[in-house]
Amino acid sequence: MKKQYAFLVDSEKCIGCFTCAMACRNYYHQEKGVVWRHVYPLNEEIYPHRERAFFSLACNHCENPACLNVCLVEAYTKREDGVVVHHQEKCIGCGNCIRSCPYGAPVYNPVEKRAEKCSFCHERLDAGLLPACVQSCPTGALKLIDLATMEPGNHVQFPPGFPKNDKVNSSTRFIMPKVPTMVRR
Amino acid sequence: MQSMELPLVLFTVLSQAAIGLVLMNAVRLHAGPGGGNARKEWTLVAALMGVGIAASLFHLGHPLESYRALAHLEKAWLSREVLAAGIFFALAAFAAFTGREKGSPVLVWASVLTGLLALLASGMTYAPPALPAVNNALPTVFFLISAVVLGAGFASWFAADGNQPLLARIFVTALVVGLVVRLTVPCAWLSGSEIMRQTGMAWLGAPLYWIHIALMAACLGVLWKNRAIPVWLPILALAGELAGRAVFFSETIHTAVNIGAPY
Ligand code: SF4
Ligand code: SF4
Fold first, then answer.
1. Which UniProt keywords apply (chain B) (predicted)?
2. Do A51 and A68 contact (CB within 8 A), yes or no?
3. Is there a contact between B130 and A161 if contact means CB atoms under 8 Å apart?
4. Nearest Cα to B128, choosing from B3, B252, B262?
5. 3-state DSSP call for residue A134?
6. Which residues does chain B have within 8 Å of residue A69's beta carbon, measured at their own beta carbons?
7. Does A107 touch chain B (CB under 8 A)?
8. Is A82 in the pocket of ligand 1 (CB under 6 A)?
9. From edge to edge, which strands make up the β-sheet containing A142-146?
């Protein structure tokens, strides 16, 4: 398998503090209302316990990116390391990628009038640094992995609460939150 | 509810009316010489496609950079749609400028071919993986029905008397098929995956959806009574298709709205 950088979301460790999402904003200063990373709480139908569980998600840097396939001006490229980059200067703001990505990752920037999304902090990766969100996570719930070298483990690709799409084949992997121990008295 | 995408509603419906007109032109060629005024008809075809393309530019953040739209013909259906619609418009404009009373079969068939390709490319463009309810052949089916309904309706403005019953029959058939498809599809979605179910609920709960259904039924009622297509009826059908397309764009649910909840 070719190199494919990906996010590992460990929902057992995630406490829903939004530090990852804030680190992304602090680093890129997106326009008001433009968000690259979201922290989604898991619905009670998926995780019916008193403590809550979360998925921290941005672009999944898919193997067969819907965004790249539909962009009429070739504003998207996929790097050798699997990172899907949006070149905003090429974008004409047609919204086709926004409509097509099953994960809602590309968003419209109303000031630039062009799309934009998580870049996996590829400039930081190239400098040997971690993505801002990964670096900031206080519990280590967000990790940088390479699917090519990752050992098999208890991680899943399409957990409940995450849109399944085999064809697009998103790269993010998840560790599901454990069921809490019930203490009876 | 997402945005109604008015420029896309106008572009898709008007371009499909233009494509439907050339389809009906080909049907009439096949049915034998029926007279009519080819030049005026081509003018309407070119005008519909031209207005549609102009409207589509308002959808872009940067309309002046739209010249780069053909960069990704290799993969992007949207690039292919732009190419096919552009060629179709050029053919129609050429026919309108150079044409005489009698039309040229070569131009008709070349336009039918590029028109159908544009329609297919449109169908693929608006069937993305993020919209499971329409991530299939449905958009192409919806668009084809719109093209035939509007094509048969507007062609009645130009066809000779001998061809009017044929057009009325096509109009009625397309309306009946359209009504059956429009009524059954959202109901079928209700028993599909979560996002399909939500889409079915959103469509069935949208006033514009019922306006579309009512206008299609009204057109059928008028044809039932009249047995011919009154001059104003295509306009009524056009209003219905615009309403239906607005529902298509605004009420089809995106997978991203449900992250964290069951799919
Ligand atoms: S998550 Fe969406 S934007 Fe990111 S690579 Fe996949 S399809 Fe493209
Ligand atoms: S909005 Fe920009 S990046 Fe997205 S498909 Fe259109 S041109 Fe490509």
1. Membrane, Transmembrane, Transmembrane helix
2. no
3. no
4. B252
5. helix
6. 75-76
7. no
8. no
9. A142-146, A5-10, A173-175
Question: Which of A69, A78, A88, A114 maximizes ligand 2 atoms within 8 Å of its Cβ, making it the mutation to test the pocket?
Answer: A114
Question: pTM of the full predicted structure?
Answer: 0.95
Which ligand 2 atom sits closest to the C-alpha of A70?
A: 5
Within the 128-157 window of chain A, which residues sit less than 8 Å (CB to CB) from chain B? none
Nearest-CA neighbor of A54 among A19, A100, A97, A81? A19
pLDDT digits (tens, 9 = 90+) for A20-66: 999 999 999 999 999 999 999 999 999 999 889 999 999 999 999 99
Give the residue, out of A68, A91, A109, with the most ligand 2 atoms within 8 A of its beta carbon, to mutate for a pocket test. Answer: A91
Can you tell me whether residue A175 is helix, strand or coil? strand
The DSSP call for residue A109 is: E
Angle at B187 between CA B186 and CA B190, to 5 degrees: 90
A42, A78, A172, B125, B129 from A97: Cα distances, Å:
26, 14, 19, 11, 11
ipTM over 0.90: yes
pLDDT band at B45 (very low <50, low <70, confident <90, very high): very high
Predicted confidence band of residue B179 (pLDDT cuts 50, 70, 90) = very high
Q: Token pair for residue A102? A: 């099953």
Distance from CA of B127 to the nearest CA of A (A): 8
Is the pLDDT score of B37 beyond 90? Answer: no
Asked if B72's CB is within 8 angstroms of A103's CB, the reply is no
pLDDT band at A74 (very low <50, low <70, confident <90, very high): very high
> Measured between alpha carbons, how far is A108 from A106 in angstroms, rounded to an integer?
7
Contacts of A70 in chain B (CB under 8 A): 76-78, 125, 128
Q: Quick one: pLDDT at residue B101? A: 64
CB within 8 Å of chain A, chain B residues 173-232: 195
- Model confidence at B138: pLDDT above 70: yes
Asked whether the predicted pLDDT for residue B167 surpasses 80, the reply is yes
Rounded to an integer, the average pLDDT of A155-166 is 96
Region of poorest pLDDT, from B46-60, B89-103, B111-125, B203-217: B89-103
